[in-house]
Amino acid sequence: MLRFAMLSAALLLPTVAWAQSCSFGVSAMNFGLVDTLSGSSSNSTAALSVNCTGLTLQRILVCPNLGTGTGGATASARQMLSGANHLDYQLYSDSARSAVWGSYAWPYPPMAPAFALTLNAFGSGSSSQTIYGAVLGGQAMTAVPATYLSTFSGSHVEFRYRYSLLNDCSTSAGSVDRPTFTINATVPANCLLAIQNIDFGSNGILGANVDATGEVSVRCTPGTPYTVSLNGGTSGSPPTSRKMSKGAETVTYGLYKDVARSQPWGDASTPGSTVAGSGDGAAHDLTVYGRVPPQTTPSAGVYTDTVVVTVTY
User: Fold this and answer.
1) Domain co-membership, 26 together with 169
2) H or E segment and range at residue 21
3) Residue 192: C-alpha distances to residues 32, 185, 310 (Å)
4) From CA 146, how far away is CA 136, in angstroms rounded?
């Protein structure tokens, strides 16, 4: 008679919960040289990268919260600082720079832009996003020449991530990583010139003074000292005896700093004849007073000269 018995074996192992783990990196955002006198914005970008591990084929929601940075912020702009001076800029999640990149934890309405990645069959995944930046226009009268900086680290950066099928970045849920990056820009000293020509009009006999005016408009960055000089024209003549010409014939004229035509306006070759000032971001209109003195009248025709205006700063 045969007898059979069954032997069974069992092993109980603890359940392993594969928590997600993500690491982030953000490149520096460098605006380079920013021309505040142009009135337009200056753009730059930074690259955000993320690498995650966890449960295979699971979706990880990423909420990259960005606060004010060390430069601080107002309701309308973040700021970079240079000592007590500030330069306004903003961060965006779109290339059109219309959607501000914010945080659930800061006092302004925009939140962080949600994005997600799905882990592969090996439980890993990566993604990248672009952070778009713009130094705002309209700062010609406030941004002094300097190098400006804002640093994002610690409480200013709160990149939260968690398993989720939703796109809700309005909460503090999830694990946190805090990468560090910087945003910087340099405002150089700069000046712009605009010119209004001098037209002495149509004249007959040059037996009396013929007066006319032109204008040099100077606009320089705040605190920038400048000097405006006028060269001797095509003939290279002194300030009060420049020459307008028609072929070999000439008409003598002078350029002055004052309405009485007593202060010649020239260049460094004539000491004391230039005009100095200091920029404040606004345009300053300088009148150029011209005079054709009495002289022997040459033949009829159009007489011209070209004077180079130079602003040194």
Assistant:
1) yes
2) strand 21-26
3) 20, 20, 10
4) 16
